[in-house]
Amino acid sequence: MGKAFDYVPTQLTKAFREAQADEKFQGWLKMQEAVMGIEFPIYDLPEVRDSMFTKDSLAVAEAKLIELYDSNRAAYDGEENVHRTMRYVYYVGETFRRAFEGTWVAIPPQGDKPQREGLLPGVDLPFRESFVTPTQLIHLALTRRSGIEITRVYGFAERDYNEWLDAGKPPRTYQGTLREDD
Questions:
Q1: What's this model's pTM, rounded to 2 decimal places?
Q2: Which of 52, 128, 142, 170 is the most exposed place for a label (fewest CB within 10 A)?
Q3: Residue-wise over 7-20: b if at least 16 C-beta within 10 A, else e?
Q4: Which residues does 5 contact at the CB level (< 8 Å), separation at least 6?
């Protein structure tokens, strides 16, 4: 049996490096960026037009998602819902990215028998090994329906970010002890 830390951190894998150049992912990022200035603040969430990409706006976005969808499954049922939900995915991720010096990344499926196909959009924060995955945050919000799930995770990231700043922005350390042979 292996040890708990016998794994290669995702950011250090060849699959991760190659995924960042994926044309479909890059196209999705460009399209979502454009939509944020046109569609999202006008049609999807006009309530945040003057406070885009703030912690407070995440609570408004979460409340709107709960109002729109009675489940996570409903959020992805039908083309219109998929497109709207993906705009929220981008909005949530972009809010984290801007606040915490993050970078959008394409997360490849992992393991011998991955539970999903295709790339997952995520935000890589320079002070932690794990990713912010907005699709999972929306799933959490729509499953628990408390209205505080996304801002709670934001608060944890904010705490970690401030500790990282106070420490002088040290390089990220990985718990995973293995490295991939290229």
A1: 0.93
A2: 170
A3: ebbbeebeebeebe
A4: 175, 176, 177
